[in-house]
């Protein structure tokens, strides 16, 4: 998958939030997404900044840091390059690929992600 190849070459960030999207330290959550895909998220802190480490069903991982948002939770990587973005609001999460070569255009990679068993 192209997103995976890009992720391996760049300092990536990917993210998903726990069911209540609070992002508390040591919180873990698993999500089932459209298309039979899944992602696990471990929340913590990185240099005192709230973080989310995503582990995709492909085995790829991405560390993301909390970013300002008007609603829910948003995690990304502070870079002008290509990176993942994790959005969570209520019981639903989405993973986007932010393309630094396309002016920061964000394209959905995992959609309609909802909490699943085992996290």
Rg (CA only):
13 Å
Model regions low in confidence, pLDDT < 50 over at least 5 residues: 1-25
Shape: globular
> The CATH topology is what?
Lipocalin
Oligomer: single chain
How many helices in DSSP terms?
1
Binned strand content: over 45%
Main-sheet strand order equals 1-2-3-4-5-6-7-8
Number of extended strands: 8
Largest sheet: 8 strands, antiparallel, barrel
Distance between the termini: 25 Å
Characterise the protein shown here:
The chain has 119 residues and is mainly beta. The protein has a single domain (2-116), classed as Lipocalin. The protein has one helix at 2-9, and strands at residues 28-32, 38-46, 49-56, 61-66, 73-76, 83-89, 92-99, 105-116. The chain has an eight-stranded antiparallel beta barrel with strand order 1-2-3-4-5-6-7-8. Strand 7 (92-99) and strand 8 form a beta hairpin. The longest helix has 8 residues, at 2-9. It is globular. Mean pLDDT is 81; it is low at 1-25.
Write the layout of secondary structure elements.
Blueprint (H helix, E strand, L loop, with lengths): L1 H8 L18 E5 L5 E9 L2 E8 L4 E6 L6 E4 L6 E7 L2 E8 L5 E12 L3
Antiparallel strand pairs: 1-2, 1-8, 2-3, 3-4, 4-5, 5-6, 6-7, 7-8
Search tags:
mainly beta; Lipocalin; eight-stranded antiparallel β-barrel
């Amino acid at each position: 998958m192209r997103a995976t190849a890009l992720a391996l070459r760049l300092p990536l960030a990917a993210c998903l939030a726990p069911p209540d999207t609070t992002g508390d330290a040591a919180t873990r959550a698993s999500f089932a997404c459209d298309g039979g895909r899944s992602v696990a998220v471990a929340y913590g802190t990185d240099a005192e900044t709230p973080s989310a480490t995503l582990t995709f069903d492909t085995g790829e991982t991405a560390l993301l840091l909390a970013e300002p948002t008007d609603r829910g939770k948003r995690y990304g990587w502070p870079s002008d390059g290509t990176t993942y973005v994790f959005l969570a609001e209520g019981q639903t999460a989405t993973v986007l690929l932010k393309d630094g070569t396309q002016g920061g255009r964000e394209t959905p990679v995992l959609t309609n992600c909802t909490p699943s068993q085992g996290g």
